[in-house]
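Researcher: Going back to the complex we discussed earlier. I've cleaned up the inputs and rechecked each line, so this should be the final set. Can you rerun the prediction on the complete assembly and write out the structure?
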Amino acid sequence: MCPQAVNRQARQEKIARAALTVFSKKGYAATSVREIAKAAGMGKGTLYEYFQTKADIFVAATKQWLNALESRFSIHVAGLEDPAERLTALAHAFVELVDPLDPMTARMSVEIIRQGVLQEGVLYDRRHELREVMLGTQKRVEQVLLEGISQGIFKAAHAKDVGKMAANFIGYLDGILLHSVMTKGELELKEHVDFFITTVLHFLSKPSGGPSRRGPQNADLKGAS
Amino acid sequence: MCPQAVNRQARQEKIARAALTVFSKKGYAATSVREIAKAAGMGKGTLYEYFQTKADIFVAATKQWLNALESRFSIHVAGLEDPAERLTALAHAFVELVDPLDPMTARMSVEIIRQGVLQEGVLYDRRHELREVMLGTQKRVEQVLLEGISQGIFKAAHAKDVGKMAANFIGYLDGILLHSVMTKGELELKEHVDFFITTVLHFLSKPSGGPSRRGPQNADLKGAS
Amino acid sequence: MCPQAVNRQARQEKIARAALTVFSKKGYAATSVREIAKAAGMGKGTLYEYFQTKADIFVAATKQWLNALESRFSIHVAGLEDPAERLTALAHAFVELVDPLDPMTARMSVEIIRQGVLQEGVLYDRRHELREVMLGTQKRVEQVLLEGISQGIFKAAHAKDVGKMAANFIGYLDGILLHSVMTKGELELKEHVDFFITTVLHFLSKPSGGPSRRGPQNADLKGAS
Amino acid sequence: MCPQAVNRQARQEKIARAALTVFSKKGYAATSVREIAKAAGMGKGTLYEYFQTKADIFVAATKQWLNALESRFSIHVAGLEDPAERLTALAHAFVELVDPLDPMTARMSVEIIRQGVLQEGVLYDRRHELREVMLGTQKRVEQVLLEGISQGIFKAAHAKDVGKMAANFIGYLDGILLHSVMTKGELELKEHVDFFITTVLHFLSKPSGGPSRRGPQNADLKGAS
DNA sequence: GATGAATGAGCCTTCATTCAT
DNA sequence: CATGAATGAAGGCTCATTCAT
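Model: Rerun complete. Updated structure for the full complex:
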């Protein structure tokens, strides 16, 4: 009756996970199905029991990666109250994507973008799904900004621009991350991002009313850099 | 040098130009040599008279593209004196890369990055060359910043950070451009970039005119924290 | 013999029946074992409990089909006494193989022939078994002819040729049936077959003894057409 | 300018010819492209310079075969005046299709029919083209019949039935040929066909002028059988 | 006994590269 | 020089068969 009770979803996730490591290393086109199978520790044919095509495997790997990203963001931000700190934490989560010892995630992001941008790309027809995920992160940033405003920490005048600011924030992070990957660590990613945040917070923040201007200022700057 | 050499180079450029249009449309892997030959209006075998491999053609196309980019920047900036205006002009040059009617250049940039980032990428072993070109643009930005400082328009305190600032500037532009390409114009690229520049200039600029320099400066510093 | 054996045979027949519908629709090569299993309402592995290979399943399906054919002939001929009528009835049984609404049987016959004729065919090594069955039908025709002669209806001179005549009869029916299938009903099968029988009976029949030659002859022709 | 002046059509014919021998031996599905290439004495990839798909190769092989058939018929019939002889010659051309030493053509006919009959068959969508060719042969037979009638050799009463008769004639030949192939020569093909022609001519022919009708008729039968 | 998950041989097809002309 | 005909390695995918459950 029940020969092998295999958890289909678990199997698919295992494959997607294995595929992720290979795709991120060599890209979609240069990765052969055989390699994926080997990485997943199973036969070539088995992959096709769980996915229709190589492209589907790539999509699954992509989704897995995006989910991992999301949860990483959640972990970083968890427990932080101060909007400035939360913004910084988000950026740092991005920074950590570029592990010099395992730059997988960063490379994967390049490949994903490519597959979504190029007409012949595997994700081209599903790029709206990607956009959804990215919008999720963007919304997260917007919320932080709005909280900052409502808490009186950020200037209320920017309320109408939170959308643009969030998009720019994410855009910047993606861009600088790419550059970092491309230079393989020559670029001091964290320093750059911290500096960027300084810029942004400088733009956002109200003069922190108080008797002494210098003290807090220094403290803040130290923390940001 | 000799006429033949000139002829040879002209041929190579013609091929590179043709290849660029195809590569930017379909990406490296999905582009066949036959297509390039057809686009260049010559036989497949002839390509191999001027290039050793398909990868070499891609490198040539890449260089051509980067040069075109450089000259585009030069044109935009030419004649502008005010550092703020020059910064803005540079950014606008980037924005115009994403022609909604011909997103070729933007897509090409994705492909180039990918080929430079992925281990199996055609440009992987030459990514330092890419880095060179990007550093060129970065230097250009740095120079504008330094000029602004020397002209007393930008705060002198940032002099030590021009490197970071320029890298961030370029990084942001690349990132937001990618997002724009990926969303196929849903994102209002120009508005976002202009807003970003506002942020940057706000951070950079001295309080424009005023009786006391210190006061405003302090205010600025406050704002940054 | 023992209950299990009976059960076993029933299972095999069920599988063969299911396989027949699929094989006749798509041919041997294009039919996958999975499809057969689904059509039989059981698991793929189960099939291999009852058959060694896919080829064996095809052989079983073939035999089932041939048996069905035989019984169809029996039914048609049952109760008819007149040899001419019996011959006609046999031919009509063939004609009905090509049901425009369900051309399964006709298509199956093509596939069977193919598998028996081609070196790599599944039935190639067993084509003698097929020949047996076909000889069965041929013998049936021969017998009708001999009865007609012994009844004085057909010319006695043909007694020595009944073998050839029967073979030709069956051969013609197979051939015209194939053509009909290939033209998907554009060919008026029944009309052609009836005309053929006219020819044959004209050749076979004695001038039906009596004062007038024309009358009876006409009668025969009418009856045949 | 002109690296290799290759005669495309000659090349295609060479491939088709080679493919014919393999297809006729093993059938479409069981024949691999590699085998065709080897038989044609060229690389696998070369085939795809001249044909889009394996199916296209099969179609080309089919057409070649049909053309060969046509010319064979022409040769056999050439120079014959007497309609009866021409009919016989046509039938004999068919008979010779089954060369016991090289039964290729006969097997090919089975495969062609199959591919045209089965829904998944390669020729299924082009079965009308096949029908055209077959109609060509049929027309040829019809013409012979009509000539016989106009020459006063065949009964004028059959003029309205020449269509049916020709279709039956071809149908019979195809059918008996298949049986012959399936039995690998156990069936004496020529004898059977000759006997069949006797039947047909008996049906067709006018009593060959003479005082008595019975006499000549008997004579004919003797001679024919 | 019944099942379907797993497998890998083998299929058709593409394409960068070579080379005779 | 210019060409495109020729090639075979390699790719994605299918599927008959096995076997653990």
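Model: Worth noting: Confidence is low (pLDDT under 50) at residues 210-225 of chain A.
Researcher: Good, that matches what I expected from the previous run.
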